[in-house]
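protien #1 (seq + structre)
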Amino acid sequence: MTSDITSTNMRMGPERPGGFQVAWAVTLAAVAAEVAVWFLGAFVVAPTGLDELTEYAGRGEAVTRLAVSAGVLALLLGTWVAVAVWMRAGRGWARIVLTVIGAGLVLFRVGDFGMDGVEPAWWAACNALPDLLAAAAIVPMWLPANRARPRPVA
């Protein structure tokens, strides 16, 4: 008795719903945008974070503070990506955590719009981009087609 087994028949279950894939991609885009905004703010867009810290605390202390800031950012973004990996694997609690993160970032951004008042509109838009992407990742996670937990695909 022979069986015709193909690679498509070897799957353990259905593929991940498309909404999880979209949410994963948008979350990665939000993380990348957050890194870009941090780098631009620290070293490129005048007045840079490095310049302001150097004026306030001296060059050595400024470099130290930026290094600590980069380390904390890396830790937070790594945690964010790890939770997104769990969301992609179908963990319901991860969807809730990412929803709280996305909604929280948007609320903080809205509360911050009038605080600086001196930054150009294009820079405000750049600063808002990671937060808006994080919020946009919420929608595909909660579409009706994504309510069932996906099973691993071999």
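ok now protien #2
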Amino acid sequence: MPVVVEATIYEETQVGDALGNQIMLMTARVDRVIKGSIEAKTLKIFVGIGGCTRAGIGQGIVLGTLRDDPLRGVMLEAVEGAKLRGQSKKFLQKQTDLRDTVKCVTNELGLRECRLNTVR
């Protein structure tokens, strides 16, 4: 089912899937549902990490497909393709300000985990 949401991503972790592909797993507050049906106020979002992937803590519009994960429940598989040149200076400054509040640590598995301190 296609979904479009405005969300604030406040947590991110890079993990591997069952096939060894690297993905970014994020936790987000759903600020507004633009298309589709999501009842949850928070949502897990994931995207495969490739050479041009830009994903992580911040606020914006996320497009994707809902998937039912047996371990994590309903998750949003995000579509890649943000065009940075088309974003306004005000929007980019807002993202920079959000990222300036991020705290990152290395977890017990040696993976980087980051959290936004201003949202919960």
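The chain has a mean pLDDT of 77.
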